[in-house]
Write a sequence for this structure.
């Protein structure tokens, strides 16, 4: 476990007995775990294990059939996605949701809406308050672009970037409103080996800046390299939880997911 995670030591997100039924399908079956502040925690499992359904319940896209979700000791079960975001949990998606014709900076500034106070009408009228907020937003996001090593491309149209740097822009936009926690859905999807290595460095930088990350990911090399803890799901149930080394030695995980000819 990283020093940052170990020093923080406080449960930021608490999942208690989450259930989700789709008709007769029990997609998520009484899943419970905590995410400690300042750590990277991964959720892994075979296709159909319930990972994305779990994420959708945490982020407010699906109402759970049972169980509760607490964030910073506040019950967020049943909140809408924008309300969950307002609490401080920002989510990225496997499919990029960027405007390819806008600059990197302008795409990232779209993520500042959660903390803006001037309001839509003031922005339309270009009021003094909205102009001040825009200047403050730019000042706030430039360090984020620096952390993620895309500051030199801030004026470049996103459509002209490599796919890996587009992923970095999406991360920067999620970080723009300074959320305590990120939910990352398959952040390495579509990346080549070099881009995946860059992503690993970026996620560790985000963690080292004091953020907490919960991610769903299929790239086991990435997961084992950057995660402080891992949760393993299979057929909707949690079958293992622990540090990467323990997960790699877990016989049930080896048998049903990681694969071992000797298992």
């Amino acid at each position: 476990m990283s020093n940052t995670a170990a020093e923080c030591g406080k449960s930021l997100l608490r999942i208690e007995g989450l259930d989700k039924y789709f008709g007769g399908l029990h997609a998520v079956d009484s899943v419970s775990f905590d995410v400690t502040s300042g750590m990277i925690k991964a959720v892994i499992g075979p296709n159909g294990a319930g990972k994305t359904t779990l994420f959708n319940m945490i982020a407010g896209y699906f109402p759970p059939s049972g169980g509760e979700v607490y964030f910073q000791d506040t019950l967020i079960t049943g909140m809408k996605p924008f309300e969950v975001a307002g609490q401080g949990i920002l989510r990225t998606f496997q499919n990029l949701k960027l405007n390819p014709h806008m600059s990197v900076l302008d795409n990232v500034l779209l993520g500042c809406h959660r903390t803006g106070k001037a309001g839509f009408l003031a922005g339309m009228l270009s009021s003094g308050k909205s102009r001040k907020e825009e200047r403050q937003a730019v000042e706030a996001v430039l360090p984020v672009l620096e952390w993620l090593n895309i500051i030199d491309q801030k004026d470049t149209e996103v459509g002209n970037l490599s796919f890996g740097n587009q992923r970095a822009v999406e991360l920067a936009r999620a970080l723009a409103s300074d959320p305590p926690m990120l939910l990352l859905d398959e952040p390495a999807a579509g990346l080549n080996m070099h881009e995946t290595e860059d992503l690993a460095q970026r996620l560790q930088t985000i963690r080292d800046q004091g953020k907490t990350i919960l991610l769903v990911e299929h790239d086991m090399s990435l997961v084992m390299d950057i995660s402080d803890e891992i949760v393993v799901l299979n057929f909707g149930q949690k079958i293992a939880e622990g540090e990467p080394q323990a997960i790699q030695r877990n016989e049930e995980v080896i048998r049903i997911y990681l694969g071992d000819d000797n298992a």
In short: DSSP finds eleven helices and ten strands in the chain. Residues 98-178 form one domain.
